[in-house]
Amino acid sequence: MNGKPLVSIISAGMSKFGKHEGLLAREIFSQAASEAFSRCPKLEPKKDIKAMFIGHMGEAYEHQGHTGSVIADWAGLTGIPATRTEAACASSGAALRSGIYAVLSGLADVVVVGGVEKMTHRTTAEVTEYLAMASDYPFEQWHGITFPGLFALMATAHMHLYGTTEQQIALVAVKNHYHGSLNPKAYLQKEITLETAMASRYVAWPLKLYDCSLITDGASCIILTKPELAAKYTDQPVHIFGSGQASDTIGLYQRKSLTSLNATKLAAKTAYDMAQITPKQVNLAEVHDCFTFAELMAYEDLGFCKIGESGKFIESGETRLGGRIPVNTSGGLKAKGHPVGATGTAQVYEMYLQLTGQAGKRQVKDAEVGLTHNIGGSGATAVVHVYRSAQ
Ligand SMILES: CC(C)(COP(=O)(O)OP(=O)(O)OC[C@H]1O[C@@H](n2cnc3c(N)ncnc32)[C@H](O)[C@@H]1OP(=O)(O)O)[C@@H](O)C(=O)NCCC(=O)NCCS
After folding, report:
1. Catalytic one among 20, 40, 56, 89?
2. Which residue in 62, 68, 85, 185 has a CA-CA distance of 20 to 30 Å to 323?
């Protein structure tokens, strides 16, 4: 990698993902922040941290807006500039990007970026309605289409164009549940068979229960600084070499292609160019599997396999632990869970563990270069980052 590091990650924390009955989002975030602070004893949070960016999708869940200040308060950081970033399921991907702007601008040497969502106290119908607000109101929401339906349209188009099968799509769930079974912080820590996934009930054809991510409570927290200051705080920084964010039309019906996300391609190109690497140099990735099919599309849009060949690529086992490029070693949104505002920086948490050799049973051997890919809604936002370990 010939590019130069933009920022360095000096610590990271994540709450357990799952159901946190009786807790508020702010309390769940405090768990993530406590872990990040305690992993970095040389950091004096109140003195050193100069800004906070928090991904949070919806005030509807807890009837609580103005989340930047609320979260800063409960993390013990009242006083600093604290800003909420919102880009649907990419809200904390956008927080990371904002944190990078803050460090690179020279306005803040140490910043906290993270995200949180509390969802499980609401009914599935309520959550589905709140999530749908991230799609186009007049032509999508108004006509009753929800996110499982939108991703089902994309999956169907891919099946039609390239012959991708329901079984190939379900293999993503089998892999990610296996990875999730190795992650003590994942919501569902159980392996499933292809037969179980295939026999699960349809949510929106061809997507079934096991093709959907989980409605989840959770929080994640990452601490960034300038590369030249990283050694002051830790012997094991993880450097970010590439950062890309892009947008697309909110409505699926306005796009040229239903089988590819242009925002992902644009964000990936920016991140790869900045890091001066090609997709072949990536050792592992956390990609946005809000629905299993979305992971297949990401393989193609990120350049891990050729266009139209993601079905065969998942069959090859290359993206499973032990394969050439393990994808979603955390269990992904499918098994680890998808507390939407927390997801982007939860992907970064997994990358931090992997690139500092702390991923336990799911450690990728000799992992050096990683990538995270976080999308909002049906892909109107995409955020891609490229990382490298300090070793
Ligand atoms: C798929 C979905 C509709 C299922 O919700 P539901 O029908 O209300 O299911 P329930 O919450 O009643 O759960 C029933 C069982 O299925 C399990 N389950 C729920 N969602 C699951 C999922 N996505 N994968 C696997 N198991 C799931 C539950 O753990 C529960 O198991 P149990 O009976 O052993 O306790 C819901 O998980 C969903 O909407 N997911 C997508 C979320 C989303 O769109 N996110 C944003 C993407 S852009």
Report:
1. 89
2. 185
